[in-house]
Amino acid sequence: MLSAHLKKLKARIAISAEEERVIRGLMTGTRRVRADEVLIHAGAELDHSVLLLDGWMARSKDLQSGDRQFTEIHVAGDFVDLHGFALKRLDHEILTLTECQIGLVPHERLQEMVGRHPRLTRAFWMLTNIDAAIHREAALSLGQRSAMSRMAHLFCELFIRLEIVGKASPGGYELPLTQRELSEALGLTVVHANRTLQELRRRELIELENRHLTVLNRPGLEGVAEFDPGYLYVGAFPF
Amino acid sequence: MLSAHLKKLKARIAISAEEERVIRGLMTGTRRVRADEVLIHAGAELDHSVLLLDGWMARSKDLQSGDRQFTEIHVAGDFVDLHGFALKRLDHEILTLTECQIGLVPHERLQEMVGRHPRLTRAFWMLTNIDAAIHREAALSLGQRSAMSRMAHLFCELFIRLEIVGKASPGGYELPLTQRELSEALGLTVVHANRTLQELRRRELIELENRHLTVLNRPGLEGVAEFDPGYLYVGAFPF
DNA sequence: CGAAGCATTGAAGTGCGTCAACAATCGTGG
DNA sequence: CCACGATTGTTGACGCACTTCAATGCTTCG
User: Fold this and answer.
1) Taking a C-beta distance cutoff of 8 angstroms, is the pair A90, A39 a contact?
2) Any idea what the Cα angle at residue A186 is, between residues A184 and A189, rounded to 5°?
3) Which residue is nearest to nucleotide C19 (CA to C1')?
4) How confident is the model over A157-208, as pLDDT tens digits?
5) In this predicted model, what pLDDT tens digit does every residue of A72-130 receive, in sequence order?
6) Residue A43: how many CB atoms within 10 A of its CB?
C-alpha cells in the first residue's frame, strides 16, 4: 500500500534498500476516511503528515463568498501535507474527494530522518518542490490559458501522475471528480466547465462517463493544453 | 548585505549565533546583474542557488504565444531559486526587474548543511514551502478574485514582505515595476491593469507614482483584497 | 420510489480582452 | 542641454469568453 508512494519517489531518484526500509518505518498506522470530509482544517496545528495511499483528495482555499479554489488535486502516492512538517500549520484545507486510505507519519519521525538521512531529506524536500512546480503550472493555466486549454492541461497532468503510480491504463484513467470539483480546480463555474467538457468531447479528444476518462487523442489533447511535462520532474536525478 | 535574508529567516524562526555563522558561510561571492536580464533560463542545469541581496526579480512561465505569467515577484532577502537545490533545474525562468545584487550559494555547501544542521535544513525547507504557499494564494487570486481584488492583494502581500526585510515605510514602499510587469504578475492585460490601478486610486486606497506606492488606506486595501497574511507564516515557529 | 445531488441547456449580462491611437516620460547620443 | 526614438502610461470603442440565473432531466442511493 506504500507502493504508490515508492513508485512516485523512484520515478525521480534511486532509492536504496536501506532507504526504502527507512521510508517504510516512517508510517505509524493507516486509516480510512470517508468521501467529502475535511481531513485537515486550515490553521490547525499539525504533529503528523498524511500519506495518501489510495483515493483522491484536494487542497482548497476559500473566499468569504464561499467560492473556493483547489490548488492541487491529489492521487494515490502523494504525501498530501508533507509541507506541514516544515510549516506546522497549513494555509489551506485538505479534503477527501472519494473514500481514502491514508498513512500517518509523525513529524518526530521525519525530524529523525532529517538528522540521519541527508539524501532522503533532499528527496522529500524535492517532493514538496514538485508540488510547488505544479502550483506554478496551475498559475500559468489560471492566468493565461483558456478554459479549454486549462481543462485539457489538467487531464494531461493527471494522466502522467497516475501513470507514475500505476493507476492509468494506456487509454485513460478513473477520474472520480464531479464537474463541480473539476470547476473548482480550474477556476471556472460549473456551467462553463460543463460546456468546456462538451467541446473537448465534440473535438474527439476525450470521453468522460461513469467517472472514467478516456483519452481519445493524446497528442491532440496535449496540443490544446500546450502541455510540457518537464515541470513534473519525471526522470532520474543526479543525486 | 546578507541582513535582509537573515531578517526574513528570523521573522519565522530563532537563529542562533552558530547558525548565523553557518548561513554566512554558504555564500561564495556576490555579483551585480543589470535590469531586464534572464538570470536563469528554464531547464538549465544548476549547481548553485541565488540569494537576492538587493533589487527585484520575478519567476516567469511562458506560453508559445509569448504571453507569460509571473509566478512570484522577488524582493531583497529572497532565496530566489533555493528550490533549484533539490530540483537541479528549474521549470521557469528567473529574470531581473531592476538592477540587482545577488549572492551565490553552491549546492555542495547546501548539501553539507543538510548533513550537519538538521534545524537549518528544516528552516530552508520551510522557506521553499512558504514560496509554495505564496503560489497557492496566487492561484486563489487568479482563479477567484476580481482584477481589483487581485491587484490589491498583491500590494498587501508585498507590503508585508518588504516590511519584514526593512524595505517599507509606514506609508508604503518603492515599487519599481512597470504596469506591464504588474499585469504579468496578475494575469491581466496591460490595459486592464492600468484601469484597475486607476480604480484603486479613485477609491483613495493607494497612490502610485515615480515607482513609489503610497498606501492611503491600508484596512481598506486589505478589505478589497480579502487579505489574510497567515499564508506568509510570519511569527515564531516551534522548532 | 422519492429526494438530493449531478449534468445539461438556454438566454442574457459583464468583466476583461483587443485594437488602435495618442500622450507622457525616459534614456541616450549629439 | 537639447533632440529624438523607445518605452511606458492612458483613453475610447468594441468584442467575446466566461458568468449568472433559471429551468429541466438524469443518476444515484437510501
Assistant:
1) no
2) 60
3) B191
4) 999 999 999 999 999 999 999 999 999 999 999 999 999 999 999 999 999 9
5) 999 999 999 999 999 999 999 999 999 999 999 999 999 999 999 999 999 999 999 99
6) 11
How far does the CA of A58 sit from the C1' of D14, in Å? 40
- Which amino acid type is present at position A32? R
Which nucleotides in chain C lie closer than 7 A to a protein CB? 5-11, 15-20, 26
Cell readout for A110 is 521525519
Mean pLDDT by 10 residues, chain B (239 residues): 91 94 96 95 96 97 95 98 96 96 97 95 97 98 98 98 97 97 98 98 96 97 97 80
Amino acid identity, residue B218?
A: R
* Locus of grid cell 529567516: B9
> Is the Cβ–Cβ distance between B33 and B40 less than 8 Å?
no
Strand partners, B215: B206
User: E-strand spans in B6-157?
Assistant: 29-33, 38-40, 48-54, 57-62, 68-74, 93-96, 100-106
Closest CA to B66 of A157, A153, A144: A144
Q: What is the DSSP letter of B231?
A: G
Query: CA angle, corner A232, sides to B33 and A164, nearest 5?
Result: 160
pTM: 0.96
Closest chain B C-alpha to A224 CA, distance in angstroms:
12
Q: Would you state the cell numbers that stand for residue B165, as one nine-digit string?
A: 526585510
